[in-house]
Amino acid sequence: MATSGVKLYGGRPSPYVNRVEMALEMKSVDYELVEMNPYEKSELLIKLNPIHKKVPVLVHGDRPICESLIIVQYIDDAWTNGPSILPTDPYDRAIARFWAAFVDDKFFPLLRQMRDTKEEEAKRLVFEKVLEAFVLLEGAFITCSKGKAFFGGDTVGYLDIALGSFVGYLRVSEMMNANYKILDETKTPCLAGWAERLYSDSLVKDAMLDPHKLLESLTKLQALSKTDSD
Amino acid sequence: MAEVKVIGSWSSPYTRKVEMALKMKGVEYDYIEEDLKNKSPLLLQHNPIHKKVPVLLHNGKPIVESMVILEYIDEVWEGPAILPKDPYDRAMARFWVKFIDDKCIPAMWKACWSVGEEQEKLKEEAKEALKYLENEIKGKKLFGGDKIGIVDHAANFIAYWFPITADFVGLRLMTENEFPNLYRWADDYCSDTFVKENLPHKDGYIAILKTI
Q1: Which CATH number belongs to the domain containing residue A72 in this structure?
Q2: Count of A-B CB contacts under 8 Å
Q3: Which one of A57, A90, A116, A126 is most buried, counting C-beta atoms within 10 A?
Q4: Mutation test of the interface with chain A: which of B59, B94, B97, choosing the one with the most A Cβ atoms within 10 A?
Q5: Check: complex ipTM more than 0.90
Q6: Rounded CA separation B169/A39 (Å)
């Protein structure tokens, strides 16, 4: 593969940007992270992603690729050296794609709804739905891992990246309020163990989001967005 | 001997695209019609989370979500490619598939069944999205180039089901005047000999629309 420049546009606290970093780390790709404030729709961002105007955007050579899971699959297709991100078996690939879409279409919207719900009782109800979805993901882990350490088996893979990028935020939820513990070893023991392992896995540990730093960044970003809307 | 089954719904564009993909690869399969108003134990067993069609059963193992199924079909069976081979082209195809599924179709479908201000808002939303597709199809026979590809499959609702539905409810949205290239593509797509044989009959579909 030609060593054309690789740039990743986006801010580190974003779990979507984080997915791309995890994938690039797995393939040992040299890249430049160009920090972008996601609340500022700069001219450059509009040029790179005119349709959605969102990060992450990966630029390889001079071609932009958007949408985090599409970028991750691109990385797997374009860099064939290094570990495979998607499973090799077509059926396992279909299962991984299914659950990654579940994370984006069902799980994350519930997390976001929980974050945005201020009223305690209403928030509690959404939290229950988050837990229900997380229990389904526990089932997915048992199926996909086949008794091994990760969704991808012995090595991290597509689904580890798709969900792993949110682990920092799941920890933040608990740090902010112990009543909102999502990674709970009594309810989802497999996922609780898996989350720990991600932080020490040689392929992705450098990309994993530190919950303490996340909390700091989140506070800063919230302050920035308030300034923008003034 | 590999066993392939499709659990689907006669009128559904999602079911039809899976069937078309299998036929394009020359795969023989058994078709099981599902009554969506009275979901069968078979469907609930194989798609417990979403409880939707289509479901592809390959040697008893279920695959769900039409785009996931299409990628699976492309990977398992030889024959004309559904996705491009080049990594960048694959990424672009996946991008457009997601765009059509997330931004175009929901707004277009909801616009058909809403009224007043809400309908106007959905119409605007749909038109904004369709403008990007209009641009993308310019100068191309099909989204897949010379042959039907995954993006054409993703947009099958736009080509066939939507014009019939819009006509039925009296909605003007994707006109030839505003979207000449998409209009031409829809016509090319629906006139394709292979596609034509695999679309549900118009009157049959209208009969179903009457029950909504």
Answers
A1: 3.40.30.10
A2: 54
A3: A57
A4: B94
A5: yes
A6: 39
